[in-house]
Amino acid sequence: MRTRPAIAAILLGTCLGTCLGTAGAGAAPVHWGPRAGVNVSAFTGESGDLIRPNSRTFPNLGLVYQVDLARNLSFRGEAAYSVKGGGSSSEMTDNAGNPIGTTEDTWRFDYLEIPLLLRTRVPIRSGAVPYLEVGPSFGVALGGHFESKGSGLPDQDLKGDMKAMDLGLGGGFGIEIPAGSSSLSVEARYTRGFSDLWKLDNNLTMVNQAWTFAVSWLH
After folding, report:
1. For residue 182, how many other CB atoms are within 10 A of its CB?
2. Contacts 24+ apart (CB under 8 A), 94-99
3. If pLDDT is split at 50, 70 and 90, which confidence band does 25 have?
4. What does R_g of the chain's alpha carbons equal in angstroms?
5. Rounded to whole angstroms, how far apart are CA atoms 200 and 49?
6. Kind of pairing, strands 165-179 and 156-157?
7. Can you tell me the distance from the alpha carbon of 41 to that of 208, in angstroms, rounded to the nearest whole number?
8. What is the pLDDT of residues 127-158, one digit of tens each?
């Protein structure tokens, strides 16, 4: 399993090396702006196999810094408030087996997510330009929470059991629409952690994964 962090390290080195090389060769065009979207998330790992979580929709809001390295190649760094997790529902019964209600459980993990991506565009004749992007993603843990509605169980703060950093890999696709000196991007991106998000021993692993659907406006 060590290969996956190694791949992320290689991609990170490639991104930074390319950017530094471009900066040394001359000033590259720089763009920045806001990005807003949602994460559709359902954790995986051993806990995912056991619970079979439903997807939950959480916010993904941040800022983008993009450097054009070549005509159809860019480095893209982001800093975003990104929430991941998942949920499950179950039916409660009394001692006779009669249904008496349902419970809704939600696991919520808050991160400062920092993806470092290489974006390559596929030039076509129309104004909208499709693109692909890939790169490592670093999630700095901000908080964690478990909530159970209908069960009578108290809410739990999970932050103390989470790893400080969740390293993963992201890849996605989208369309970039020029608008004068600015551009609008509409995209879908899949991000998955490399390992267990918990720092516990002898626990069932829980691995973050999410599809992010977002728009960004760059100047």
Report:
1. 12
2. none
3. very low
4. 20
5. 18
6. unpaired
7. 8
8. 899 999 999 999 999 999 999 998 778 899 99
CA distance 137 to 116: 6
pLDDT of res. 8? 47
Position 12: which residue type?
L
Question: Which tokens sit at 180?
Answer: 């004068």
Domain ranges of the chain: 3-218
Q: What is the pTM assigned to this prediction? A: 0.85
Cα 204 → chain centroid: 22
Task: Answer whether residue 171 shows pLDDT above 90.
Answer: yes
Is the per-residue pLDDT at 5 higher than 80?
no
- pLDDT-derived band at 26, boundaries 50, 70, 90: low
Query: Cβ-count burial of 28 within 10 angstroms (0-12 exposed, 13-18 middle, 19+ buried)?
Result: middle
CATH number at 3-218 = 2.40.160.20
Distance CA 209, CA 191 (A): 6
The token duo for 82 is 């990104």
